[in-house]
Amino acid sequence: MSAIPTRLRRSSRDRVLVTPEGIALPVTVASRGARAGALMLDLVLIFLLILGSTMALFSIAGGASAFMREIESDTAAGHVLQFIFIVWIVVLFLFRNAYFLFFELGPRGATPGKRMVGIRIAARDGGRLSAEMVIARNLLRDVELFLPLVFLASAGVDSGAAWLAATGWFLIFMLFPMFNRDGLRAGDIIAGSWVLERPRRKLEAAMTVARGAEPAVAAAQRKYHFEEAELSVYGEYELQALERVLRDKRHQSVESVYQTIAAKIGRNDGWNDERRFLEAYYTQLRARLEAGMRMGRRKADKFSDEG
């Protein structure tokens, strides 16, 4: 990962991410405000889910208790209420912890709050966002946010030193993103992740080849044909990266990407004709992905299953 040269930089949050395939991919780091807004939205959603689950369990508990009393079994009623209370505790735990894990481990790498503000999690090394990364950054969220809030609530202002310690703990982690250029949480640093803005363009609009190149692309289509198995290797993320390489027209990048893709799909017939080979692969891969989208199937990247 490196910085974009000053003359090309549109924003202080623009970066260049080098993927394992050697592709230099421009990305934009999510703003601290967007991350805070996403967290607030997620916490509101979690609260609403907990509230709805609590009301549902109270309703079930009331009905079960009334039924047990009708059959004059107070002991059984007590056992039912204890069981429902245990279920409620488990629900609270799952909503607080599994909520973030479930959505961030998905193909979009984003919770509903992050999706609403247009950001997602990614690996800082350009590789796959692994389960270990997501688990690590979310375990740290307990240390950063939930534990100090619990201590603050239990200590109270009158407890003096304990309250000040809990407040300091909370502020250190909450202000941590303000003191690094990428707005990383402590959890991001440990997990090797960061939060990026999602491209706001739709797939069909985003993935286009320059109009002037259309005759050359048509000629390449007649020369190079790729089988379904060769096209199924990559997804939308790699397609957009390939488009950027073709637009930049850097011979070294084109040759490097050609070697990567050719080795991946087991082809070598594009030697000394790398650009036309990649243009043909780009066009056929794009057509395949768009056809899948019309059928409700999407493949986010090479690591994702189609669905």
From TrEMBL:
Transmembrane domains' residue ranges: 43-68, 80-102, 149-176
Compartment(s) where it occurs, according to its Swiss-Prot or TrEMBL record: Membrane
GO cellular component term of the entry, any: membrane
Domain of life: Bacteria
Pfam families the record matches: RDD
Keyword line: Membrane, Transmembrane, Transmembrane helix
Domain RDD: residue ranges: 29-192
Membrane disposition: Multi-pass membrane protein
Name of the featured protein: Uncharacterized membrane protein YckC, RDD family
InterPro entries xrefs: RDD
